[in-house]
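Ops channel
N.P.: pipeline sanity check, posting one input/output pair.
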C-alpha cells in the first residue's frame, strides 16, 4: 500500500452544506434559517445561561459568604524546606524562587516552624511564626521580617 492509495472510509466524509448560493442549490435566500424569528437574525439564538424566561439558576441560588478584596495571601515555607541551603547562607525571596520553594506570585512569604534545622541561616521573609523564629535563633541564625 502506498500513500496515494489511502482514502477515507466510505461515508465518513461528507460535503459541507454551502448555504446562500442561490435558489438552484436548495439552500438559497434564507440560507436554511427560515423566514423570521430569533434564530433567523444575525447573532440570533438565546444568550448563554438563558433558561427560556424561567428565573436563571444563578439568580435562584442565594448569595453566600464574603470575599475580602484586601486580604493578603502568603506563600507557606517550612523550616524543613530550608535544609537545601548551606550554613551561614543569606536566604532572600529571590533565592527561594530560584530554588523553587516559592513561586513569588503571592503577597509575601510566611515561614512556619515545621521541621528542624541544625545550622545557622539568615532568612528574609515577610512573616514568620514564633516557633520558626525560635528554631532559627536556636540554631544560631536569624529571621529578618520584610515590610
Amino acid at each position: 500500500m502506498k500513500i496515494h492509495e489511502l482514502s477515507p472510509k466510505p461515508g465518513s466524509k461528507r460535503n459541507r452544506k454551502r448555504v446562500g448560493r442561490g435558489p438552484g442549490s436548495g439552500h438559497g435566500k434564507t440560507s436554511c434559517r427560515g423566514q423570521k424569528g430569533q434564530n433567523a437574525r444575525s447573532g440570533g439564538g438565546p444568550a448563554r445561561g438563558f433558561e427560556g424566561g424561567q428565573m436563571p439558576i444563578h439568580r435562584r441560588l442565594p448569595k453566600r459568604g464574603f470575599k475580602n478584596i484586601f486580604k493578603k495571601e502568603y506563600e507557606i515555607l517550612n523550616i524543613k524546606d530550608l535544609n537545601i541551603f548551606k550554613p551561614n547562607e543569606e536566604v532572600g525571596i529571590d533565592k527561594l524562587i530560584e530554588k523553587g520553594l516559592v513561586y513569588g506570585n503571592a503577597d509575601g512569604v510566611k515561614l512556619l516552624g515545621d521541621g528542624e534545622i541544625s545550622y545557622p541561616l539568615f532568612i528574609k521573609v515577610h512573616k514568620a511564626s514564633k516557633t520558626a523564629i525560635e528554631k532559627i535563633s536556636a540554631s544560631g541564625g536569624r529571621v529578618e521580617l520584610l515590610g
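N.P.: looks fine end to end. The radius of gyration is 33 Å.
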